[in-house]
């Protein structure tokens, strides 16, 4: 008789190669790649052929996949260029309540138990697939994409927190306090943990130690979370947020973590999602189509309504905020493995999410191309308002250190950057010349507001393109800050970028 370890090695080898092949097939036909391994898992598992059986080792590897995927989600997806305003928060409230309520009513009528846990992954949006979807249509760096991403990442955070609370409904107050402490720890000790990793890196002078230390911290935090009755995957998500800046400054380390996670754990995780699906029958297909329809209809409606608040095209925002297939899948599998939902509920739900992950990007691309063709017929006029050009803003907060300021300036290739206060109102700008006069050893400890700021020209958001060009000639400044009636920064405009933008049209 073959031992559990040996058969698991065989299973893992089959799973890994099958997952990568299915990813490549889906990539070549222009579909969302991670759905391929899920469908392959359904075929190989009990859903269809039953070639691979879930066991303790496969389950453990899958659970590790959830931990590392959510860690990277926290480190990379939680990235909003501008501070969300009141309209964004109002949009997020609508986009959370409407899908949650629609799916709640449907599940309540059907009569499922523990339905609250099931609602969260079905009703939420996922920022990871959204990033790829926006890059596919080349709008990952303008006002529209930023507003869309703000909505989706806030929805994702809200539902992750809600999921953590619902895991322990009998101890809601304790769970809320735990989550509050996690956020407090993130704010108070985030840099301390990063400093510890930096010290390890400095003393050992070995890249492998730095990588091993990071992996060790993720695993240890996961252990402590489970020890104190908090989900390890969700704790990894918050840990990723905590170490976001640390990883951003170390692209080589982040690249290793990508290879470690996306090269091994991600394909196994998504194929493992399919393995947990029970035998496919008419009931599962019917329920998956029903909830797929509810997900698309409720989330599109919420996004369409919210678009009026944010001044974004309705269909674009509706489909973009409906994107699925990332953290939601992880939470769904967590709910199954912890025993909160049964295999039938899991099976139709993962199929509904997979269908959404396939269909939504296609609908988004179709509507974006139609919208883009219409907008291409409109020429940019010098008499139009600058805000309508949707130029990506660039600024630094007063509390950011000079290392962060230099990083932003270098990334954009500009000669200065606007500095804002806690109310997001411009105070001035830091020029390259000013930075060159400061000792590089002080970059980490010196804040943006602690250096001499040059006066930044300011215009309101209804300023015309022609007037802004005149302003650049008059002031000879590298950047102009665009504000609203309340004095809050809306965007920043650089003369060279403005000229390049106009030439492209």
Explain what the structure shows:
By secondary structure, the chain is mainly alpha-helical. The protein has two domains: 62-269 and 279-370, Na+/H+ antiporter like fold; 386-504, CBS-domain (Roll), CATH 3.10.580. It has 20 helices and six strands. The strands form two sheets. Strands 1-2-3 form a three-stranded mixed beta sheet. It has a three-stranded mixed beta sheet with strand order 4-5-6. A hairpin with a 5-residue loop joins strand 2 (416-420) and strand 3. The longest helix has 34 residues, at 343-376.
Return residue spans where pLDDT drops below 50 for at least 5 consecutive residues: 374-378
| Proper CATH architecture of the largest domain | Up-down Bundle
- The proportion of residues forming helix, as a percent range, comes to 55-70%
SSE pattern: HHHHHHHHHHHHHHHHEHEEHEHEEH
Write down the Rg: 24 Å
Counted up, domains total: 2
Secondary-structure-based class equals: mainly alpha
Strands ordered across the widest β-sheet = 1-2-3
CATH class of the largest domain: Mainly Alpha
Kindly state the mean pLDDT as a whole number? 83
Number of helices: 20
Strand tally: 6
CATH topology of the largest domain: Na+/H+ antiporter like fold
Q: How would a textbook summarize the main sheet?
A: 3 strands, mixed
Estimate the strand proportion.
5-15%
- Straight-line distance between termini: 70 Å
- Label the overall shape: globular
Organism: Saccharolobus solfataricus (strain ATCC 35092 / DSM 1617 / JCM 11322 / P2)
Keywords: Antiport, CBS domain, Ion transport, Membrane, Sodium, Sodium transport, Transmembrane, Transmembrane helix, Transport
Membrane topology: Multi-pass membrane protein
Protein name: Na(+)/H(+) antiporter
